[in-house]
Amino acid sequence: MGTAPQRRTELGGFLRAKRTRLDPTAVGLPPAGPRRRGGLRREEVATLSGVSATWYTWLEQGRDIQPSRQVLDALARTLRLTAAEHTYVLSLAGYAPSPSRPAEPSAHAAPAHVQRLLDALAGFPAYAIAPDWTICGWNAAYTTLYPNVATAGPDERNLLWLVFTDPYVRDLLPDWETTSRRFLAEFRAEAGPRLGDLARSPVIQRLLRVSEPFRDAWQSHHVEGFTSRERVFRHPVAGTVRFEHHRLAPADHPDLHLVVYTPVAG
């Protein structure tokens, strides 16, 4: 789990990002005029949430204060947070359940029974990812969809790294700009109290150095929970293919996520 100062810094940055992007009219305030920057002022958020402006300023600054759950609930209502964003804020403040054990280093290979499950999904592209989104297992159908997964080195076989740096992935995804940012928003939502550790991981640090789109998306503090949805791929051989995107976790390995693509009818 990340340290308390890191979680406070992340909480402050997240609240600031949401505040500065919220349309004043969404909370019943007049539209922003020519002399006003976009978003809400700190004083407005404080008043609408029932706290002092000084205290809320300290919260955004990452000072050593402990907000109550009730105050965070009020801020979530004021800032119009989604359920995933609300959960994320609570987890940073220590109110969401913490992991039962420290995050383990990512395995480069999925457990044997998980790999057998992936292989049994013949014809359905499927892969497994560790908590830091290292791809630790995949099946033949996924290799057909994305051949580079089999040739990437273990230290580069990370879903975020491949999405933001591999030209093949950019060509494979006609909606790359939207999908890449959504992947990062989902990663951030899942990381929760472990974000301090994961943010210092080599792959995140390398992405911050080499990928401007990743830096922009990282600084946006966008958080979004995973939902099954239709995905479109532009395959160099098969042409445009459509799948439904699903994700599940084995009961005996809840730290892993299995991603499965099932064909869309028609």
Quick recap of the structure?
The protein has 266 residues and is of the alpha+beta class. The chain is 45% helix and 12% strand. It has 13 helices and 5 strands.
What does this 3D model show about the protein?
With 266 residues, this protein is of the alpha+beta class. The chain has helices at residues 4-21, 42-49, 53-60, 69-78, 83-92, 112-120, 140-145, 159-165, 167-172, 176-191, 195-199, 202-210, 212-219; strands at 126-129, 135-138, 229-235, 239-248, 257-263. The protein folds into 2 domains: 4-92, 434 Repressor (Amino-terminal Domain), CATH 1.10.260.40; 112-263, 2-Layer Sandwich (Beta-Lactamase). It has 13 helices and 5 strands. It has a 5-stranded antiparallel beta sheet. Helix 2 packs across helix 3 and helix 12 (202-210) packs across helix 13 (212-219). It is elongated and about 60 Å long.
